[in-house]
Amino acid sequence: MNDMREVEVVVVGAGQAGLSSGYHLRRTGYEPGRDFVVLDHSPGPGGAWQFRWPSLTYGKVHGMHALPGMELTGADPARPSAQVVPEYFAAYERAFDLRVRRPVDVRSVREGDGGRLLVETSAGDWSTRALINATGTWDRPFWPRYPGQETFRGRQLHTARYPGPQAFAGQRVIVVGGGASGTQHLLELAPYAASTTWVTRRPPVFREGPFDEGAGRAAVALVEERVRQGLPPRSVVSVTGLPLNDAVRQGLEDGVLDRLPMFDRITPTGVEWADGRRVEADVILWATGFRAAIDHLAPLRLREPGGGIRVEGTRAVADPRVHLVGYGPSASTIGANRAGRAAVRDIRRLLSDEPVAA
Fold first, then answer.
1. In what helix (H) or strand (E) does residue 128 lie, and over which residues does it extend?
2. Considering just the CA atoms, what is the radius of gyration of the chain in Å?
3. Is there a contact between 147 and 263 (Cβ–Cβ < 8 Å)?
4. Structure confidence by residue, pLDDT tens digits, 73-120
5. Distance in angstroms (rounded) separating the CA atoms of residues 300 and 131
6. How far apart are CA 141 and CA 288, in angstroms?
7. Is the bond preceding residue 103 a cis peptide, omega within 30 degrees?
8. Dihedral sign, CA of 266, 269, 274, 279?
9. Cβ–Cβ under 8 Å, residues 13 and 297
10. Nearest CA to 106 among 8, 195, 40, 36?
C-alpha cells in the first residue's frame, strides 16, 4: 500500500523552533494536516526539555523565552524544568491546534519527484515542497576523545544522561566543560560528592548582568557569521559567557569553581597532565555540549567543505527549499522564535514564486 502523503511544508521537530514555525505557518494561513505537518520523534511535548535532569528547576533555566503568541506565566521556579516546559509546550500545541505527530522518526530527506522533497519516516513518507528542520542538538551529545579513555575503570557519562547529584554521593567526580551545564553540575555535586574537579579547555569567562532580550540578540549576531561561511555552528551560550549570579559567586569563593586546564590523558583510575599532575576519580562527567542533529539531511548534500551547512537567514544556500531553525544563530529560545517567523516568510514567497529576500 502506498502511504505517501503530500503537503506544502514538513516541519521536523517540535521543540521551541518547530512550534514557533508551526505557529507562524498557521498565522500565514496554512492548515495543519492539509498544508503542513509537524513531526516529532519524542514521546511527548516538550522538546529536549522533557529529558533534562530533575534538579534543573525552572528557576535555574538559562535565558528561557516564551513561544510566540502565548506567555508562560505563573510557573513555580522550584519545579523541575522537565515538568514546567513540557506542560507549557503541550498547552501551546493545543491552543494553536498544531496537531504534532509523534513519535515519528525522520530517517532521511532526499530529492523526490517533480521538484519536491521526499521525507522518509517511521510512520510513512511525505512529499513536500519545503522543509523546516528544527531538530536541535539534544540527540547528538559531543564526546571528546583523549588517550587512555577506554582504560578508565570508573563511570563516564554525558550531560545528556546526568541523573542528578544524589547519584554521585561519596564519589570523586571530574566535570569536563566550561559551559553553563558544567557549572550547574559542579554546584549541585559539591554537597554530595567526596570531591569535585573542574577541567576546561579554555579559562571560563563570567558575565555580569541579566541575560535579557538585548543580550540574546547580541549573542545570536555573534554566531551568524560562522553559518554564513558554512562552518559548524558554535552554541549561542558559548559566546555569552557564564552568568555571574549569587550561586556562582559562592562557588568561586568556596573553590568549587576552581578550574584546571584540560588534562592530557585518562588513566584507569583518573586523569593525568603532561607535567605529572594526577587526579583520581570515580566518575568523569562530560559537560561538553552537543552537535546539530542533521544526519537525516545527508542525501541532499548540503554540507560545505568546512563541515557545516551554509545558511543565509534560515535558508540553506545549497537548497532554498530547506530551512534550518534552531541551528547556529537560532539555537537559543529567542533565536528560535525569530527563525520560525523568518523561515515561514521565505517559504511563503518560495511557494508563491515571489522573490525570496536575501
1. strand 124-133
2. 21
3. no
4. 889 999 999 999 999 999 999 999 999 999 999 999 999 999 999 999
5. 12
6. 8
7. yes
8. positive
9. no
10. 40
DSSP state of 66: P
DSSP assignment, residue 201? S
The model's pTM: 0.86
Task: With CA atoms as reference, report the closest residue to 7 among 356, 355, 351, 262.
Answer: 351
**Distance between CA 180 and CA 191 in Å, rounded?**
19
Q: What is the largest CA-CA distance in the chain?
A: 66
Can you spell out the DSSP letters for 239-257? Answer: GT-EE--HHHHHHHHHTTT
Are 355 and 315 in contact by the 8 Å Cβ rule? The answer is no
Chain centre distance of CA 114: 33
Give the H/E segment covering residue 272.
strand 270-272
Is-contact 326 134, C-beta < 8 A?
Answer: yes
User: Which amino acid does the sequence have at 63?
Assistant: G
Nearest in space to 5 (alpha carbons), one of 46, 39, 42: 39
Hey, how many other C-beta atoms are within 10 angstroms of the C-beta on 28? 15
C-alpha cell at 135: 531538530
Burial of 149 per CB tally in 10 Å (0-12, 13-18, 19+): middle
Rounded mean pLDDT of the chain? 90
* Residues shown for the chain: 358
